[in-house]
Amino acid sequence: MGVMNRFGNDLYSGKRSFPFVGKRRLWFIIAAALVLGSVLVPFIRPIQFSIEFTGGSQFTVSGVANPDQTKATDAVLSVVPNATTKVTTVGSDGVRVQTNQMTPSQTEQVRQALAKTFDVELKEVTASFIGPSWGADVTRQSLWGLAIFLALTFLILALYFRTWKMSAAAIIGLVDVLVITVGIYALAGFEISPAAVIGFLTILAYSLYDTTVVFDKIRENTQADGEHMDRIYGESVNLAVNQTLVRSINTTVVAILPVGAILFIGAFWLGAQTLSDISLSIFVGIIVAAYSTVFVAAPLYSLFRENEAGVQAHDAKVRKARERAAVTA
User: What pTM was computed for the model?
Assistant: First the structure.
């Protein structure tokens, strides 16, 4: 604990510093590579969308003694030979089968086939159907929700910080978080479901919170530059990121521990698909959000401001003062 306290104090005072702004070109290259890799993921491993987006039929078999996925597939194909199936286990005694759209007659026959295959009563096999129009509506509303969130975020940050450049840097950071998180999520082979979309929006809110805290410290440091002529603009931004670094790390660790527990319980113990979907998206997103704030959003904001006439004039004064001090020494 003492080591961490000293570490945090050194970062806050500037005695120790990580070059988040000074090496921003390297961080931007890494960020671009991660985004590009995430964009290319669907070409390597196509993104899987849940039945809520694609539409289709779903069967759930409960009270199964041996949840063999192959038996479930064979049971469906015995009724509809050309059916597309996806089978998952639910807990220790359940099987979920998702297929393309079936007629009412086919649905009933599949229920009977699954009941016979797993030796359970017909009432233990439930069937539901989601039409393609409903799936399209979910997709449209999800995209609208994302667009409205980003638009309101840009407006609110611009009003709060009184500069659109902080809003632009924050939004770019949010997009970076979203693209990388979706890429990792798809690479892991998980389906994008409504629960996952809720998780994506949740981590955008978390990322926004983390970015706002750091940006607030940046504003405090850069406003003080008029009184303290010993730092150029980029150094003040870098100091702010270092001063909030320990807080960002602590917040991230505290956040991912319970989410990680939910992910483990949902995926490996209960087999709860909804818990797995939402917890994985949040778990990955929290880590990516912490990275994006310090390596992308803050250095990008510094880049946006350093070409302003007032900032350049201030930096020139600081450099001249340093040159005079060096000559005197």
Answer: 0.80
